[in-house]
Amino acid sequence: MPKILVVTSGKGGVGKTTSTAALGAALAQSNQKVAVVDFDVGLRNLDLVMGAERRVVYDLINVAQGDAKLHQALIRDKRLENLYLLPASQTRDKDALTEEGVRRVIDELRERFDWIVCDSPAGIERGATLAMRFADVAVVVANPEVSSVRDSDRIIGLLDAKTEIAEKGGRMEKHLLLTRYDAGRAARGEMLNVDDVLEILSIPLLGIIPESEDVLRASNVGTPVTIHSGTSAPSRAYADAARRLCGAQVPMDIPSDKKGLLVRLFGRRAA
Amino acid sequence: MTRPSTHIRFRGRSFPVLALEPDAPIAGWFERLDACLEHSPAFFSRKAIVIDVSRLGLDRDSVSEFVEQLSGRGVRIMGLTGVDPGWACDDLPPILTNGRAIASGEGPAEGVEGAATLTLDERAAFDEIAQTLGGGQAGGTEPADPAARSAAPLVVETAVRSGQSIFHPDGDVIVIGSVSSGADVIAGGSVHVYGTVRGRVMAGAYGDSRARIFCRRLEAELLAVGGFYMTADEIRDEVRGRAVHARLEDETIEITKLD
Fold it and tell me: Where in the sequence is the signal peptide annotated (chain A) (predicted)?
């Protein structure tokens, strides 16, 4: 049974696109057939993060409007043969997407893939609501800071109200992915800690991605971090999150580096 | 030098009124009305009545005639609804649009709709008239006395998320989850939250000063009881983060720890 997964957050810049690429690649690495779909029409980025920007011919809008066939628009990843990208259009805006068009594309993708990972644009408007519209699973991406957490809370409310599954009386499966987590700063009280965020959002934790330069480096060379540096801490955290999405029980690793502990000790001594 | 003020004051307001909904055949309806009036002749006197003729399907001239017949029976018509707004003219009552029916309560306290604005005798007469003229629901008036607002409580079994608003004008609201920052819970009665309140909670939204707010943990942005409010800045540190209840005392919100 194929799964439609939406990666969403409300707030921009928290790591939706990076997480879409990393989770999509990690799922594909476990031999599942994956399509990642960019819903950020007008501000497309997923093609860059996936390193496919020079191969875009047709896009989501073309397929949704019936101007191109799905197989013409899908771009196969060069590194993983199970991974495909359906890019967004950069020249159109989000009003070009219609619910019926998106439904047709999703239905067609459902026949060909095990996972359809939808990268939502920021905000709570049309693009974001259409990205989540037909999903069965949501990954809510949040950074450990108050504005991101409140926006995620808002998005969770929309997931429970504006999606097809919710309107039919079903329950959307929701997971929290905490990104850009800096154990040292959390210990010093400069960031919300994991418990605070979980208490506010009260949805199950899918994973904690530590703040790392590896993520930025991978994005800049157009490779999902799970392919780029498979042994780095963020890459392992994403791979574990992908396994949890598939139902595996993987123990949660809450990042707490020794440096953070030392800083805390020094901080205490100074006081 | 003072000039006489040229200002007159206008304000949009809404009032509860009785709406009469005559049904066809019109002759039969008048017969029943006359029978009722014989029983309690003063029932319609000194009351603002709106006539909803949407069930009759009359043309312009017959509406005019119908209004005349009603006026002759001592019914003071303040407005007409259910007709084409284009018919407005000097010999018809003002035409009203966008009227909303007031939800009828199920609890025994509500009894007859409009009970609170009527005396006991009138209530009995109204009951009878409503039944005789019947043909479905009689138009109701909104109880003006906040004490009369006692419908069943609204139970919210999930968290109230940022951007969501729970509004229950007729009774208590019970939230089993938390109320997030940026969410509103507004109740005519009291509000009970079994999680943390981080958003805004308003109890006694129609002025019921006996309403209270209970929560397991107080981190609220704003609390209001009976129209008086308190922002997060005014909440004392010793009750913040605690299980509390809030009530109105001498027009100030008093917050007390529960444990």
Answer: none
Best CA proximity match to B253, nearest among B230, B227, B220: B230
Q: Do B161 and A199 touch (CB under 8 A)?
A: no
The beta-carbon neighbor of A154 closest among B158, B162, B198 is B162
Element (H, E) at A71: helix A70-73
φ/ψ of B32, rounded to 5, equals: -65, -40
Length of chain B: 259
pLDDT at A58: 94
Question: What's the full length of chain A, in residues?
Answer: 271
CA–CA–CA angle A259, A260, A265 (5° rounding)? 95
CATH number at residue A221: 3.40.50.300
Q: Decide: helix, strand or coil at residue A107.
A: helix
Q: Please judge whether B182 and A156 are an interchain contact, meaning their C-beta atoms are less than 8 angstroms apart.
A: no
The answer, yes or no, to whether residue A10 has pLDDT greater than 80, is yes
User: Per residue, what are the HEC states of B117-152?
Assistant: HCCHHHHHHHHHHHHHHCCCCCCCCCCCCHHHCCCC
Count of domains observed in chain A: 1
> CB of A228 within 8 A of CB of A235?
yes
Residue A129: domain span:
3-267
Phi, psi of A119 (to 5 degrees): -90, 110
Angle between helices A146-159 and A126-133 in degrees, nearest 10: 60
Q: Is A266 exposed, middle or buried (0-12, 13-18, 19+ CB in 10 A)?
A: exposed
pLDDT tens-digit map of B159-203: 999 999 999 988 999 999 999 999 999 999 999 999 999 999 999
Chain B closest CA to A131's CA: distance in Å?
19
pTM of the model: 0.67
Residue from B208, B199, B214 nearest B255 by CA:
B214
Q: What distance in Å separates residue A258's CA from the closest CA in chain B?
A: 31
Q: What is the ipTM of this complex?
A: 0.75
Instruction: Please give the backbone phi and psi of residue A206, each rounded to the nearest 5 degrees, phi first.
Output: -95, -30
**Which of A137, A155, A159 is CA-nearest to residue A147?**
A155
3-state SS, one letter per residue, for B93-120: CCECCCCCCCCCCCCCCCCCCCHHHCCH
